[in-house]
Amino acid sequence: MLLKSYLQDTWVAPTATDASTAHVRDAVTGEPVCRVSSTGLDLAAAFDHARLAGGQALRALTFHQRADLLDAVAAAVRARREELYALSTRAGATLADARYDVDGGIRVLRDYANRTRAELPDAPHLLEGPAERLARGEDFLGVHLVTPSPGLMLQVNAFNFPVWAPLEKLAQALSAGLPSVIKPATPTAYLTEHLVRIVTDAGVLPPGSLQLVVGSVRPALDLLQEQDVLSFTGSAATARTLRTHPHLVARSVRFNAEADSVNAIVLAPDVRPGTPLFEAFVREVVTEMTVKAGQKCTAIRRVIVPREHEAAALDAIASELAGVSIGNPAAEGVRMGAVVSLAQRDDVRRAVRRIAQSGRFVHGDPDKVRVVDADPRRGAFLDTLLVSADPEAAAPHEVEPFGPAATVLAYRDTAHAVDLVVRGRGSLAASIVGDDLAWTTAFLGDTAPWHGRLHLMDSANMTQTTGHGSPLPALRHGGPGRAGGGSEMGGTRGVLDLMQRTALQASPRLLDALRTP
Fold it and tell me: For residue 19, what pLDDT is reported?
């Protein structure tokens, strides 16, 4: 099957030869799923359609009317989410993984709809006040006007969240009056394609407000203009290339990157093995290693523990991992499925071997895995891989095995722990587990500038936490340095980030007119 793209409100097939297509295979069985290509697609016309038809329609709506669109999209996806669950098994996802992706996307849409109505006016724009008096009299005032940009958002998404990622970006973009062109990652493009079919079948969005390009959009980068936004999720290496793309630089195209990072969890010295908080820490590590087979940009890669508790942490995590059943995600009792492809499996193997050069494997073998109801030679299966490594080695802080793998690193004292965390050079998220308030507050003061989000778990909240790896619509998702330096979500702040803020110097009568819908 050759996937189609959705351009100018029509499903369009590429004019591709077999040599110009990418072949996508089932992560569990190795059977062909689809072929992907963008050869022959008129992306210039599609972008014009987004800006003219989609953008004009969305900009004419108020914030509250755009919120109604989000609710309509959420209802359409929810009504057919079982189809997405079933299709997700082909990407190696268990039902829990699929719900994390699909239901998470629905929740973001609904959250943004509710927040937009509660926090933004029933108007197409926002006048940020109070007004500043700019002269001795009271008839010359200054405020900021926030208006929709007459451009588009080009979404370039990663393979790991083929439903949540486009819906999360769409929630912000639609709220801001910005049409979206979605470019899914090839290994799971068939899932995003089905998502877009669900939304377009429902007919709930204005023409031109949502389009899909399956295949490469590299030539399309030269089509982006000053009012457009390129929202990228993927590797740090690709983010660096995009950031310096000559056309993007020349046109000052807004670029937002959410890249990979070697996220850490830190066990504070006061947490003793065998205590409920220690056990919660172990569960958090194992959860992050196994949900979506560790293929989350926020997953824990470095487990930083006091040297005196290193052996206990390794034993406890390995013991918990031993109970994780791996195999066909449709089989009963399977807790972890396959990674997305054989190429991804091989990438993880190379990464963990490099990290283990300074230490040893405590649990798992990168070359062997026992699987349930599947052929380990055809499917992209990996064992859960726990490594104990030298904390002074470079690899644990530089190499990200994007799969079910984590590395335990022992610290001598607080200063050493801070140093180890910072060696990640910027992360999306980190967790600190401990009850000692003085230690935790001092530690987060030194590490917060290097993270987009800090998850602080103690005995009071350990039964209520949403988890280390779960981005939430109300909170910023992104991180400094290696993590890309970008920002997504963050409530309505993220909506306004996609709009143009213009300083106005005017009389009170004009400002009053702008405030009146």
Answer: 67
